[in-house]
Design a protein that fits this description.
The protein is an alpha/beta fold. It folds into two domains: about 200 residues, 2-enoyl-CoA Hydratase, Chain A, domain 1 (Alpha-Beta Complex), CATH 3.90.226.10; about 60 residues, Lyase 2-enoyl-coa Hydratase, Chain  A, domain 2 (Orthogonal Bundle), CATH 1.10.12. It contains eleven helices and nine strands. The mean pLDDT is about 95.
Length: about 260
C-alpha cells in the first residue's frame, strides 16, 4: 500500500501512516487504504492487537491541502460521497474486532483527532498537541464528531469544537482522551508494554470485552441489558477459552493461549 507502512510481527500488526512529507494528512487514498487494511487485519485469526501510528514529525495533520483544493470544486453529491468514505473508514477502525492501540508521537489535528478517537487505548508523547481546527476554516468536525465526543467527553467537546484551540497531550490525558502520556523516548516502550498486556489475555475475551463496552455504553440498565450481559458471561464461561482460563488459574499454570 502506497500511503501506509504495515508491519506484522507474530500476533501484532503495526499500521503506520506513511506520508511524512505532508505530515500524514488524509486524502482519498489514505482513507481507502486504511479501510482495506483494518478490514483485512481485523479478520486475521492469527492477530491479537493492532498498533496505529505514523512516520515523520506528525501523527496526522488532518486533511491534505491538495485534496482540500480539489474538494473546493466538488458538488454537494461529491462532498457527501467523500464524507461517507471517511465515515466508513472511521467505523471500520472503531469496530475492528481487535484492540487498537494508538501511538501518537507528533501533532494530531482535525481528522487526525478522529483517528485517535477510534483507538481503544491511546498513548501520546509529551509535547504533542491536539486540535479540532475545523471551525477556523468555516467547517465542522461532523464525521469524526460521534467518536470524538465519546472519547473526549461532551463538555470538553463543547469547548474545543467551537474554539478550535490547541490542547496538549497532558490536558488530553486529564480529560480522559489520552490514556498514557509519556516522554517521547518512552513512547515505544509504553506501547510495547500495552501490547504485551493485551496479548497475555484470552484472545476471544479481549474481543468480547471490546464489544461489550461499545454495546453497553450509554444504554439504560434495564431488564433487557441485564439479561443480555448475563447471557454473554454464560456464553464465555461455557466456551473452550473460558473453561481453559478458569482451569489454568485453579491449576496454577499458564493458559493455552500463552503456551508457544
Amino acid at each position: 500500500m502506497s500511503t501506509l507502512d504495515i508491519q506484522v510481527n507474530g500476533p501484532v500488526a503495526r499500521v503506520y501512516l506513511n506520508r511524512p512529507e505532508v505530515r500524514n494528512a488524509f486524502n482519498d487514498g489514505v482513507i481507502t487504504e486504511l479501510t482495506a487494511a483494518f478490514t483485512q487485519l481485523g479478520a486475521d485469526p492469527s492477530l491479537r492487537a493492532i498498533v496505529l501510528g505514523g512516520h515523520g514529525k506528525a501523527f496526522c495533520a488532518g486533511a491534505d491541502l491538495s485534496w482540500m483544493r480539489a474538494m473546493a470544486d466538488y458538488t454537494w453529491d461529491q462532498n457527501r460521497a467523500d464524507a461517507e468514505a471517511l465515515a466508513q473508514m472511521l467505523w471500520t477502525v472503531w469496530s475492528c474486532p481487535l484492540p487498537v492501540v494508538g501511538r501518537v508521537h507528533g501533532d494530531c489535528y482535525a481528522g487526525g483527532v478522529g483517528l485517535a478517537a477510534v483507538c481503544d487505548v491511546l498513548v501520546a508523547a509529551e509535547g504533542v498537541n491536539f486540535c479540532l481546527s475545523e471551525a477556523r476554516l468555516g467547517l465542522l468536525p461532523a464525521t469524526i464528531g460521534p467518536y470524538v465526543v465519546k472519547a473526549l467527553g461532551e463538555q470538553a467537546s463543547r469547548r474545543y469544537f467551537v474554539t478550535a484551540e490547541r490542547f496538549t497531550a497532558q490536558r488530553a490525558q486529564q480529560l480522559g482522551f489520552v490514556h498514557e502520556c509519556v516522554p517521547a523516548e518512552a513512547l515505544d516502550a509504553t506501547v510495547d508494554d500495552m501490547v504485551a498486556t493485551l496479548v497475555a489475555n484470552g484472545p476471544a475475551a479481549v474481543k468480547a470485552c471490546k464489544r461489550l463496552v461499545q454495546d453497553v455504553a450509554g444504554r439504560e440498565i434495564d431488564a433487557d441489558l441485564r439479561a443480555e450481559t448475563a447471557r454473554r458471561i454464560a456464553d464465555i464461561r461455557a466456551s473452550v477459552e473460558g473453561r481453559e482460563g478458569v482451569q489454568s488459574f485453579l491449576g496454577k499454570r499458564e493458559p493455552a493461549w500463552r503456551t508457544p
